[in-house]
Amino acid sequence: MGTIATQPSLWDRSRQAVVTSIFETAMRLFAEQGYDATTIAQIAKEAGISQRSLFRYFGTKEDIVCGEQEELGELLRATVEAQPATATPWEALRAGFEALMDAHGDAGQLLEITTLIFDTPSLRARYTQKRLRWQEMVLPAVSARMASGEGLIPEVRAAAVVATVFACVDAATEAWVRNGGNADLATLYDEALAAVRG
Fold first, then answer.
1. What is the CATH code of the structural domain delimited by 68-197?
2. 39-56 pLDDT tens trace
3. Is domain 2-64 annotated with CATH 3.40.50.150?
């Protein structure tokens, strides 16, 4: 009974199939004619659905590429919070970003998406907004891990740590994209963080 209850319903599987179809169609069109030149109407037509139906799955064209950012932010926050009490803020945040990379699954698809984001100003702006929102989401969990220090309240120190980690993630991700994915993203992050902390 327990195994059956945890299986996705027919509705869930159908919804996921439509989402996948829309995403794959959109990415093909973006590759063929560019992100800005591709319209929602074209994506819907190629995917075999109405624009109204498409908007039930994705609120904007940016959402097709950037995905469920709130859900990923929650995954990051929950992973940071779930780390052992002995883990430093640096270690907890690294574990959070590892969880995000695992959630993306296919490295080739992640590279395709991230390259499109970095090459498209409107998507890059959305990416930046997402990063700022995620920083707000993880800040309380990081602050809770930090003891009081001389002259600085934990919230200030936590904000500095979070901002540093996100800057290192962005630097590593951009280097990974510019090298065509021919490097280990986690290793690039470790190198970026070591440069800052060293």
1. 1.10.357.10
2. 999 999 999 999 999 999
3. no
